[in-house]
Amino acid sequence: MKLTRIYVLFITLSFIYSCSPTPMGKTLLSSPTTTTTTDDSTSSDGDLEIIPDNTNLSVNLDNSDRAEVTGTCKDLDRRKNRILVEVFAGDPNVVLTPYISNALSDKCQTIASGLPITDKCFFVTKGLGLVEDLGLPTERSFPQCHNGRFGFSVKLGRALETVTPGTFDKYVIRIKLRTLDGILSDSVVSEVSVDRNIMAPVIDSVTADQDNFACNLKMSASRFSPTVQYALSRTYTDADSTNVGPTTLFSGKTTASIIDNDSVFSWRDDNLVSTHAPPSVAGVIAGVAYTYTLTATDASYVYGVAPTKTSNSVTCTIDRPTILPNGNPTANTCYLFMSGKVRSGVESQWAYSTTAAWTGANGDGAAFTAATCDPTFLPTGCTQTGLTTGVTYHFAVRDTNPATSQTGRWSNIVSCKP
Questions:
Q1: What is the pLDDT of residues 285-317, one digit of tens each?
Q2: Confidence at residue 330, expressed as pLDDT on a 0 to 100 scale
Q3: 229 with 302: CB under 8 angstroms?
Q4: pLDDT band at residue 279 under the 50/70/90 scheme
Q5: What DSSP assignment string belongs to 69-132?
Q6: Beta-carbon contacts of residue 188 (< 8 Å; ≥ 6 apart)
């Protein structure tokens, strides 16, 4: 009879720690509220325990492809302790099959995460752990409770899109501590949820280069994942319209390029055709407020709608033009000129009115008459004839860009009485 009992115990343990585990079925770990123990120890012995440091983690696609779990544990000084780990691509109550189970192999078991089943997906990070079937396709690594601590990491794949487009599910990691000291004993199951998504880029600064009519942007973008693609868009508020756009300044750029003024880290919005193609997205003009946003998108880790995050918005405005009298008026004629640097590549529109504040608080040019002094491209001066002697006229100028349909706000007003 004694030999029979020993044989039964040997067969049971061989089944539990088999070197050739059965194919993956549903979860091997019980729900988090259930204790699976065959131990008959008294309460004075305490309970096996495993508690993660954080039950909610966030791992961005463009920062890392692994989530690390650490925590505290209590093995009651029992022999052969090991930590069983299962990872689910979504809610384990819906997704019954874990794509990682270290009881079967260190490799991915399913493609639910978008990772190939040939990938190694489980890693012990604290201590040596316990390895079985070393070097075989079914090699299995188990973290161990050591001095009250444990640590391991798991590989994460795509962002988990839900049935609602544009929303994403979380990965769930289940862990329990198992010991064998004559009797098999398990702790209560603990869970860690992992938010797997893309990180929002940041526009760190924007500087208006008043002398050269440009807006210089500095941005922070990922350097981990070259598969993340970025797009910079621009809207503007001018004298005729509000929040026109958005216009895409660039798209499909990655962190592989670090060219100054022409990358996801640095961009110069100016009027140089060599920088902007087609000309319809040519750069800024004076007196227009431009708002920039940067978006990051990664389609390589998702089935369906690609995860996208948008940066903060920044605004840049080039000062309005400035005009001065260009000598004393004569009969029926006023003389004016633009001071400071004059923009190349845009047109200057001169106008006047007999109303002193005709440009209004927003510089919208209400009730004005277009001057006839600007028949050529980019005049720096205006000699307006055909006026009525003795009448006071109020002049202003603004930049326009026919290629982009942008109209800048009016300059200061200069009065003139022929």
A1: 888 889 999 999 886 765 566 788 899 999 999
A2: 95
A3: no
A4: low
A5: EEEEEE-TT-SS-EEEEEEESS-TTT--S-SEETTT-SB-S-STTS--TTSB-EEE-SS--EEE
A6: 32, 33, 34, 35, 47, 49, 50, 176
Cβ–Cβ under 8 Å, residues 187 and 49:
yes
The Cβ-side half-sphere exposure at 387, using a 13 Å CA radius, reads: 29
Q: Which residues of 146-168 are buried (b: 16+ CB within 10 A; e: fewer)?
A: eeeebbbbbbbbbbbbeeeeeeb
Query: Quick one: pLDDT at residue 379?
Result: 65
Q: Which contiguous run of DSSP H or E holds residue 2?
A: helix 2-16
Beta-carbon neighbour count of residue 277 at 10 Å?
9
Question: What's the pLDDT score for residue 38?
Answer: 43
Q: How far apart are CA 13 and CA 80, in angstroms?
A: 13
Query: Residue 383: CA atoms inside 13 Å, Cβ hemisphere, count?
Result: 4
Q: Which phi and psi (to 5°) does residue 165 adopt?
A: -55, 135
Q: In Å, what is the CA distance from 126 to each residue of 51, 55, 152, 190, 226?
A: 15, 18, 7, 18, 30
Helix (H) or strand (E) segment spanning residue 153: strand 149-155
Q: Is 377 helix (H, G, I), strand (E, B) or coil?
A: coil
- Identify the three-state secondary structure at position 316: strand
Give the separation between CA 76 and CA 81, rounded to whole angstroms: 10
> 130-132 and 140-142 as β-strands: parallel, antiparallel, unpaired?
antiparallel
pLDDT mean over 34-43: 40
Please determine, for residue 230, whether its predicted confidence score (pLDDT) is greater than 70: yes
% of the chain with per-residue pLDDT over 90 = 47
Alpha carbons 198 and 388: distance in angstroms, whole number: 66
